[in-house]
Amino acid sequence: MTKKKKIEPLTGEALLKKVKELDTLSKEEKAKACGYYTQTKSGVERVNMMKFLNALIDAEGIELDGKQNGNGRGGRSASYRISVQSNGNLLIGSAYTKQMDLQPGDEFEISLGRKHIHLRQIDLQDQEAAS
Predict the structure, then answer these.
(1) Inter-CA distances, 17 with 6, 77, 110, Å
(2) pLDDT over threshold 50, residue 69
(3) Which segments constitute the SpoVT-AbrB domain (predicted)?
(4) Which tens digit of pLDDT belongs to each residue from 77-103?
(5) Quick one: three-class SS letters along the chain?
(6) How many C-alpha atoms does 129 have within 13 Å on its Cβ side?
(7) 47 bridge partner residues
(8) How far apart are CA 9 and CA 52, in angstroms?
(9) Contact indicator for 11, 2 with CB cutoff of 8 Å
(10) Measured between alpha carbons, how far is 109 from 119 in angstroms, rounded to an integer?
């Protein structure tokens, strides 16, 4: 019995691309083609659908468990409402910046409407064009 070399399971964009390429195959065949299977000592291949489906969910960026901050404890969740503070400031909390994966130094353009504020993130291309 020859032992077949197992491929490393695909993740992220590579997984999504491969699944789209294999659109005519069954989900089990797609999982196997993407490396989500094991081979028993007797040579039987077993498809690991749970790992495959979880990898697809992760690749799509869907968060089923709810986000936690890095120390393992659940922080405050975003309520999508803020109030003006007594000093007139609006504070956008860390729950929002973490959810948007913002880093210190990220810049925004502010535009004001009658009773609303729009923030547009300024990326490197915008900054270079303005120079």
Answers:
(1) 20, 33, 37
(2) no
(3) 79-124
(4) 566 777 788 888 888 877 778 777 888
(5) CCCCCCCCCCCHHHHHHHHHHCCCCCHHHHHHHCCCEEECCCCCEEECHHHHHHHHHHHHCCCCCCCCCCCCCCCCCCCCCCCCCCCCCCCCCHHHHHHCCCCCCCEEEEEECCCCEEEEEECHHHHHHHC
(6) 5
(7) 37
(8) 8
(9) no
(10) 6
Instruction: Tell me the CB-side half-sphere exposure of residue 33, using CA atoms within 13 A.
Output: 17
Tell me which residue has tokens 């468990």. 65
- If we measure between CA atoms, which residue out of 49, 51, 54, 19 comes closest to residue 34? 19
pTM above 0.70, yes or no: no
Per-residue tokens: 20: 């789209």
Closest CA to 99 of 57, 67, 58, 62: 67
Q: Are strands 37-39 and 45-47 parallel, antiparallel or unpaired?
A: antiparallel
